[in-house]
């Protein structure tokens, strides 16, 4: 027998109460932040759903590339100030906008009653 730890055992927190307490506290904060993100996204999608209805009613295009470019530039600046990777912030916004545009297209494709605005 040797005194070597079991392979991988050096990565477990078994027996290290202080580390476990810290991990639990951090995970509690992560869970709260994830919940906040879900609520923020739900509110954002409520707004964009209304934008989609407005655009469809007035025959406006689902996507607005100029607006997106301005949003991305702004978000990249905010991310850099917050020490978040601007490339990640851009990817995240693009991911959301892609879904929004998909919703806008679905709304525009819905049959509209005759004479509707
Ligand atoms: O502002 C708009 O025109 C929207 O439709 C909203 C939104 C967004 O999710 O922020 C989505 C699609 C557009 O290309 C630009 C922005």
Q: Ends: how far apart? A: 82 Å
Strand content: under 5%
Average pLDDT across residues?
A: 91
| Weakly predicted, low-confidence segments | none
Portion of residues within helices = over 70%
InterPro entries: Chorismate_II_sf (IPR036263), Chorismate_mutase-related (IPR051331), CM_bact (IPR010951), CM_dom_sf (IPR036979), CM_II_prokaryot (IPR002701)
Domain Chorismate mutase: 17-108
Pfam family, one: CM_2
GO molecular function, one term: chorismate mutase activity
Give me some keywords for this one.
Chorismate mutase; binds prephenic acid; 117 residues
3D architecture notes:
By secondary structure, this protein is mainly alpha-helical. The protein is built from 3 helices and no strands. The chain has helices spanning 17-57, 65-81, 86-109. It is elongated and about 75 Å long. The relative contact order is 0.10. The model has no long low-confidence stretch (mean pLDDT 91). Prephenic acid binds at residues 48, 51, 63-64, 67-68, 71, 97, 100-101, 104. Prephenic acid (PRE) binds at residues 48, 51, 63-64, 67-68, 71, 97, 100-101, 104.
